[in-house]
Write a structure and sequence with these properties.
- The chain has about 270 residues and is an all-alpha fold.
- The chain is built from 13 helices and 2 strands.
- Helix 2 runs parallel beside helix 7 and helix 12 packs across helix 13.
Length: about 270
């Protein structure tokens, strides 16, 4: 074997130390934990949006009547909030897995330190953990869509596009959530998550149209990621697409790329010093 070939083989790969191509090992471990320990927590998260749907959609919906939906058409109140609750469910499922779950593994179980001390790199860990958050969001989306079809809130095949959209929403929140969690050291800091998520849920036009706000407040709401997820879901639910549709998708694509980069960089900084 020539010296040139030996030098080429010995030359470090551009992603060496960061990615080993074995994120599958992290994912396999995640599924084993779900099957043996966390399946009850996973299932329980499905019921929150369903309870909101029943209480607000059928309860308050009788008082509200119809509201303006995408394209200006009048739709029932329950059809208005159902896509929003699906987006919120995808967000909550992804955030739980990528924040509190990651926080415990990072600071108490010391799991990531053990992982990166093997052949696994920070990007393997990031991909594996974010995938598990996506899986949770996918399950919630499928279950909730089943409820919407069963109640006759949606019909046809077009609303099924909300399932991949929910995965995209989960991807964005999971990647950013895991990166943000890497900066947190105490439970008090982790409480900031709910401090951010609850107002976002309440004010992102989840339960009422954004038009109720003054114009200045509307611009603030439109900067929130959940608002983009909700608007995307509502358009997919009724099959009305506008020039803003690709902007909603692009928002989460950019959010995902930035989140994966942040998470990988932080894990590398923390565990590969």
């Amino acid at each position: 074997m020539s010296s040139e070939v030996l030098q080429r083989l010995q030359r470090p790969r551009p992603m060496s130390g960061v990615y080993s191509g074995n994120a599958r090992a992290v994912i396999e471990r995640g599924f084993k934990v779900i099957l043996t320990q966390n399946w009850i927590i996973l299932v329980s998260g499905f019921f929150e949006p369903v309870f909101y749907l029943l209480a607000m959609g059928y309860g308050l919906g009788e008082l509200v009547g119809t509201v303006e939906g995408p394209g200006g058409a009048e739709i029932s109140y329950i059809a208005f909030i159902a896509p929003a609750l699906l987006a919120s469910s995808a967000m909550n499922g992804a955030i739980y897995d990528s924040t509190w779950n990651v926080f415990f593994k990072m600071h108490f179980a010391k799991l990531y330190q053990g992982m990166v001390s093997t052949s696994l790199g920070p990007l393997d860990v990031a991909i594996g953990e974010i995938f598990m958050a996506l899986f949770r969001g996918f399950l919630y989306a499928c279950g909730f869509m089943g409820v919407l079809y069963a109640f006759g809130i949606v019909s046809g095949f077009a609303p099924l596009l909300m399932i991949p959209a929910a995965v995209l929403v989960a991807f964005g929140f999971a990647s950013i959530g895991m990166g943000a969690t890497s900066y947190m050291r105490t439970f008090q800091q982790m409480d900031m998550i709910n401090f951010v998520l609850l107002p976002m849920f309440l004010f992102s036009s989840t339960l009422f149209p954004i038009s109720v706000y003054p114009e200045a407040v509307q611009w603030v709401v439109k900067a929130l990621p959940l608002w983009h997820g909700i608007e995307l879901m509502r358009q997919l639910a009724v099959g009305v697409y506008t020039s803003a549709t690709p902007l909603h998708v692009g928002y989460f694509v950019v959010m995902t790329v930035l989140g994966v980069w942040l998470t990988t960089s932080r894990l590398r900084t923390l565990f590969l010093r």
